[in-house]
Amino acid sequence: MTTGRSYTYKLFARNDFSAFWALFTDNLINLIVLSGICQFVFNMPADIVFGRIVPGAAVAILAGIAVYTWLAKHIAEKQGRDVTALPYGISTPVMFVYLFGVIGPIYWSTNDAMLAWQVGIGAGFIGGIVAGLGAIVGPWLKRVTPRAGMLGTLCGIALVFIGTVPLATIFEDPFIGFASMIIILWGLVGRHRLPFNIPAGLLALIVGTVVALGMGKASVSFEGVGVYLPIPYFGDLIAGIQHLFANPELFLVLVPVQIYNFIETMNNVESAEAAGDHYPVGLCQVTDGVGTMIGAVFGSPFPTTAYIGHPAYKRMGARSGYIIGVGLVIPFAAFFGLLAFLNNLIPVAAAAPVLVFVALSLVTNTAHSVKTDHIAAVTIAMMPHVSAFLVIKWGALAGALGALGATGMAQLGDAELTAALLQQGAHYEGHLALSQGAILTGLIWGAIVASVIDGDFRNAGGFALAAAVMSLVGVIHSASLHWPEFSGVAMGYLIAAAFLFIYPIFHKADETEKAENGSMDSQAPHLPAGE
User: Fold this and answer.
1) Which of 10, 230, 320, 425 has the fewest CB within 10 Å, making it most exposed?
2) Of 484, 17, 474, 482, the residue nearest 259 (C-alpha)
């Protein structure tokens, strides 16, 4: 093995080119989505969206990528081997929470797009502080949390939001989507060679875009192209922070989602470690928090984070060149208004297969990086995200009906509607509880199950007790933070914690019956031969 003294880490490798297109597409889709919602849902003028928000986000991405490039080089030369830099960008789940939990309510209550943006960047700045504080507890959480819990809850996000939703968009535009998808499956999933060794992500975008242009579903438009250099907005930032403190109920949305954000960073660092690259979780959490704060100063409300999907880029053989490329291209596109051009040119169905690949890679890597017994823990950690998806889509259905002019409808959460849904087999109340704080809930239940499987009952009981405390104050299983309330869910966690702490004391070791191979399959009944 090459020693650290003689080893020199090369930032760029041939495979960085393929990885670049995957990460670039991921960031590009986020920027396209957030700019579209701000412009067409919240009626923000183009000078705010493309002149402030997008350049600010680009500055945040550039700052974080600079740190993660340095960190990869430092660790590679310290360990004397190649490593893959952590991917970085805007946190997709948190982006939607900021859009519809912070910016949206301000706009809908005031019809003031400027104020909504100011509150957004104020929330982003405060949220960055909360995310950075995760470094205090992040390393300890990483030590006590089983890998199956951390990776399992990421798999839930990957399966539902990063995989299934893009796959649905592919089936909405099958001519475009399938043309791109088969190239991604061939080149990135199957890892077969393409003509002239062209990167699969690039070829998929080109083919999908050409098909879309031929069908009239894409266009070449230079509207919005210009120079939008980033500048700090201290006055607007202060105004936004003042409004936050004048309306403290917004912190009930802000604080829990930023707790999620620093846990997401922790999970993604664990994902990288499972793939063979070891990064300091505390430093990564500080980087994400500071990056978010820098973005807020320059006009972007949206938190940044170490991205999900490192194992996919590791598998592709990337080093640091792929994030350096994103750190150059995204700011260039943002500062010169090219995002609007790409928004018109590249159809979502052409880019979606790249996200499907990221989801497949994360789930597959998790299956290979946890003990076979812990697959049960991974599975239960994924389930709350299915509930989150259902609740979001039920809400979207209700909103669509209202937009079509339907009147006199019961609202989601009404007792009569909840009872009617239950009669039809739709357990709205249970799914709602699971959806609230889904990433924390998935992590907790994955950790509990993995700890029980390993016989570490004290650790399992600690997670159950922590869940009880969080339930009491509304961090999980509640729409907002509140004073302690002894709900049924909180009491359920207390009962589980009591059992896990007390019962093992009286449970004799010789009474423990565990299958020799330690797998759930050994408990299945055996059929007679021939059946």
Assistant:
1) 425
2) 474
